[in-house]
Write a structure and sequence with these properties.
Number of strands: 3
Strand content: 5-15%
Radius of gyration: 14 Å
Largest sheet: 3 strands, antiparallel
Strand order of the largest sheet: 1-3-2
CATH architecture of the domain at 32-99: Orthogonal Bundle
Shape: globular
Structural class: mainly alpha
Order of helices and strands: HEHHEEH
Helix content: 40-55%
């Protein structure tokens, strides 16, 4: 009996665990792609982050989720996709990963 697609698993991570993941992910050479924690770092690092509302997070999630590709070792998406999603909300150029 098919009950639909499997549910996505989420983890509860502390702020320090997320910071550690971000630091470790910066060591990867992904050729323009970024990990989900790096994308979150771009969102957090945007100068207008505090202006985001719940609906902004929902719409960015809906926009970016189909663009995430899962490789055998983990998920990645194009850095420009995250920049474009942030720019669409603010009309400004967000911080690049090298600035975080």
């Amino acid at each position: 009996m098919n009950e639909g697609p499997p549910k996505q698993k989420t983890w509860d991570l502390s702020k320090s665990d997320l910071a550690n993941l971000l630091d470790l992910s910066k060591r990867l050479d992904l050729n323009g792609e970024i990990t989900p924690v790096m994308a979150w770092g771009m969102v957090l690092g945007h100068p207008k982050f505090l202006e985001l509302k719940e609906e902004d997070f929902k719409s960015m999630s809906e926009e970016l989720l189909p663009k995430v590709r899962c490789y055998g070792f983990g998920a990645a998406l194009e850095e420009f996709e995250v920049r474009d999603a942030l720019e669409a909300r603010f009309g400004t150029e967000p911080i690049h990963m090298s600035s975080i």
